[in-house]
Amino acid sequence: MKDIKSGVQVENDLQNLYNEFLKKAGAIAFYDIVRDIILINRSVDEKRELFEKLEKEGENVLDYFEKINDKALNIEIILGLSDIEDKLGEEYFRNFKDKIVDLIRCLDSYATEMSYSLEIASQLLGKELVKENNDYMDKAVNFERLYSDVFEFLMEDGITFQEKLNEIIRLVPFRMSKHKFYDIVRTSLLNYLNDFSEREVNDYIEELKNTFNGSLRLQYGKSFDYYFTKTQGYKKFDFKTANLNEIEKLKDEISKLLLEIYDLMEMLSSLGTIVSKFIVIEKTKKYLTEDLNREDITEIIKRFKEVMKDENLEKRQELLLICEEKVNYIIASLDKLIKLIDDKEKELKNDESKDYLNNFYIEMIEIVSYLKDLGYEEIKPLSESDLKIVSDDYLEQAVDNFIQYIDRNLKDMTNIYRKVRMRRILSTLNGQFNSPEEFFEYLENSLKLNTSEEDLQLALYNIAELIISYEQNKPKKDSN
């Protein structure tokens, strides 16, 4: 009987701790919303011209920002601090977030396809610059010295090793058979994903598919007709017959449009982050407005409305600072709270408590996911199966399906697009090569195997520039 009572007591203690966690998570979401709405309004004002241009093309993106702005300015209704009933609920914000994610994915699919055309154009123009510079063309290449420099560059910092290796892959000609490419993709993914969950495996491979061919993404062509039409036009551009002026014009035009698209994606991601915080508010508002928090929150809402109305920069900055300090304080206290929860969980060791603990754990992970959300990803409700490590059979099937996906796509592509897309995937993987020797064998083939003098000199120039850029960005050593 004593054990039963002690078990019940521990469960009650856990519930109280969990309620405190919800309260703190809700407070973080609230202060983040206030801060982020102030900041995003500043960004919207700066990009007003872009929004007006899109509206003329039939895409009223500004409407999404205005709707969430309105919800923030009436946040007391959502919190239950008003006589007006909150009729929105969590589902409204979940659906709103899905719409934002769809817009971001649509833009991302255009950016992916544009980036391939830009990469090809930049490569062709770079080769022409090398041709014009006869000093490069006449120089003999000391490959032994080159490989030594690259090895030293890669090995000087274990943290950036993979990042540097991937960048070098992007800079050299792609020289690899399809069979070898598929073998590397398969081995790399099986090794890298073997401790992922099924959901994580699916998400990761889906992202690789989108990286390889953005035009097959579900959202491709669904929104932003202007960018869609431009993207389709660039894909049909004939690089073989085009002159240098036409390629230069293409490069400049794509570069300008990509900046627009990346700006839009960044702003929509910021909006998605705010919407995720509203979802946390809906999940936690019952606990958020208890005790002394109610007065603090009411005061912040009052100040928030004032600064949004008056546009007083000094008062805005002051409120931003208050919100930042509040969040930092709460986050610091969360570490201690989570440790207390962990300690209490260890006291419940019987099987009957397993489901009880799992429910706590899953809900906490989901709320933390919304708090950390970068805005551009879909956050699905978690289940216990999402926490289990993927089986070997499932992983192998998923990887083999991805390779078949690549193979089907390659058959309908011109050679110039095949190579640039395969190179992009190779440079996205982790642990592509089993040893330094294997990588340097690939590098040697890229630089020597059926490689023109222009391609070789351009690759050498780009590698040198890469090494120099890392050297320049190294943190300076303290002379003391």
UniProtKB/TrEMBL annotation:
Going by the UniProt record, its keywords in alphabetical order are: Coiled coil
Domain of life per record: Bacteria
Q: What is this protein called?
A: Uncharacterized protein
Q: Which residues, by range, are in coiled-coil regions? A: 240-267
